[in-house]
């Protein structure tokens, strides 16, 4: 069963007040929601529904259509792996599978221990280093499956010693 995360909805109320009556603002509201909470919480969907008059199903339909939205809190290590053209032709699809094998998560998911979250993105702006990923603010290029496995191992060990 999915864990339900309680969140403070006050900051979202301010966002909704700012967008009150603004047509076509649902994506902007969802982006602000994710900025506030690092993901789109279920409680936020119901509040957005109450304030905008859109059904929760419609809001979730929009949110799940875009890969930028996440539905669980971001991990301590936020991994963004690129599947833009340069990365794709250099094997990024296979590398995405490595994360699933190593961490047991797919796109927009977070490991149960809250350590890693994974997002598949379109381009990280450093195509000459393809295939590329970022972990938090740091870029890792010329990736291989072995590099990824080693890095994940190091981050886990680092975390255990903190
Ligand atoms: S296509 Fe991957 S960084 Fe540009």
Q: Any chance you could write out the topology, listing elements then pairs?
A:
Blueprint: H1 10-18, H2 26-37, H3 42-52, H4 56-65, E1 77-82, H5 85-89, H6 92-103, E2 109-110, E3 116-121, E4 133-135, E5 138-140, H7 145-161
Parallel strand pairs: 1-3
Antiparallel strand pairs: 1-4, 2-3, 4-5
FE2/S2 (inorganic) cluster (FES) binds at residues 82, 84-87, 123-127, 130, 132.
Could you walk me through the main structural features you see in this protein, from its secondary elements to its overall organization?
The protein is an alpha+beta fold. It folds into two domains: 10-65, no CATH class; 77-161, Glutaredoxin. 47% of the residues lie in helices and 12% in strands. The protein contains seven helices and five strands; from the N terminus they run ααααβααββββα. It has helices at residues 10-18, 26-37, 42-52, 56-65, 85-89, 92-103, 145-161, and strands at residues 77-82, 109-110, 116-121, 133-135, 138-140. Strands 2-3-1-4-5 form a five-stranded mixed β-sheet, covered by helices on one side. A hairpin with a 5-residue loop joins β2 (109-110) and β3 (116-121). α1 (10-18) runs antiparallel to α2 (26-37) and α6 (92-103) packs parallel to α7 (145-161). It is globular and about 50 Å long. The relative contact order is 0.12. The mean pLDDT is 92. FE2/S2 (inorganic) cluster binds next to α5. FE2/S2 (inorganic) cluster (FES) binds next to α5.
Small molecules bound in the structure, each named once? FE2/S2 (inorganic) cluster
- The domain count comes to 2
Using only C-alpha atoms, the radius of gyration works out to 17 Å
Q: Which structural class should the secondary elements be placed in?
A: alpha+beta
Largest sheet geometry: 5 strands, mixed
Number of strands: 5
Q: Gap between N and C termini, in Å?
A: 30 Å
Shape annotation = globular
Which spans of ≥5 residues are poorly predicted at pLDDT below 50? none
- Portion of residues in beta strands equals 5-15%
Helix content: 40-55%
Q: By CATH's scheme, which homologous superfamily of the largest domain applies?
A: Glutaredoxin
Q: Average pLDDT, to the nearest integer?
A: 92
Query: Strand order, biggest sheet?
Result: 2-3-1-4-5
**CATH class category of the largest domain:** Alpha Beta
The tally of helices reads 7
């Amino acid at each position: 069963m999915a864990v339900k995360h309680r969140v403070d909805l006050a900051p979202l109320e301010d966002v909704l007040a700012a967008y009150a009556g603004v047509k076509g603002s649902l994506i902007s509201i969802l982006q602000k929601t994710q900025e506030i909470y690092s993901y789109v919480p279920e409680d936020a969907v119901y509040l957005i529904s109450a304030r905008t008059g859109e059904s929760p199903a419609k809001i979730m339909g929009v949110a799940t259509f875009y890969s930028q939205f996440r539905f669980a809190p971001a991990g301590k290590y936020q991994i963004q792996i690129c599947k833009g053209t340069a990365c794709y032709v250099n094997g990024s699809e296979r590398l995405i599978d490595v994360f699933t094998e190593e961490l047991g998560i797919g796109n927009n998911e977070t490991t149960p221990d809250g350590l890693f979250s994974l997002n598949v993105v379109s381009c990280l702006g450093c195509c000459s280093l393809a295939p590329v990923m970022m972990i938090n603010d740091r870029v890792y290029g010329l990736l291989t499956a072995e590099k990824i496995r080693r890095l994940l191992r190091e981050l886990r060990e680092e975390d255990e010693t903190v």
